[in-house]
Amino acid sequence: MNREARVMGTTSSASHGGPTPVAQEVSGDEQVDFKSISDSEWQNRLTREQFNVARKKGTERAFTGEYWNTKTPGTYMCVCCDTPLFDSSTKFDSGTGWPSYWQPIGNSVKSETDGSIPFMPRTEVLCAKCDAHLGHVFNDGPRPTGERYCINSSCLKLKPEQK
Prior knowledge:
single chain; mainly beta; seven-stranded antiparallel β-sheet; 2 helices; globular; disordered N terminus
């Protein structure tokens, strides 16, 4: 599988019948090497769905995620590391059932060739800080970029704009 990288400018019930974990906050001042965190630690920090999508490259079903139809002004942060990823001013209704944006914030995301479906190569989008799988980017978006970042809600948390 070709994995060439380039930098680009809901909870489920817990396994084993236990209580549903709640995603843990990470202090902005805390220096964490997110890429060295074990799967076991990620499972403790994230809900089951967040872990499956963000750490295991899963996909939530269309039209089921928390943010697919949200119009609240604010910043969409990475659920794993709190990195600001997308501004709500770049969000648009793509009709796909997933939150879609035409541009990320700065260099907050990176992309890799996703060859998991041999007859349909795609470009995977990951958080540049912690490598969380976010979704995919396509070249059928609106102006000014022509890109559509199709992102799983479970990988995001919205920080509403302060009034």
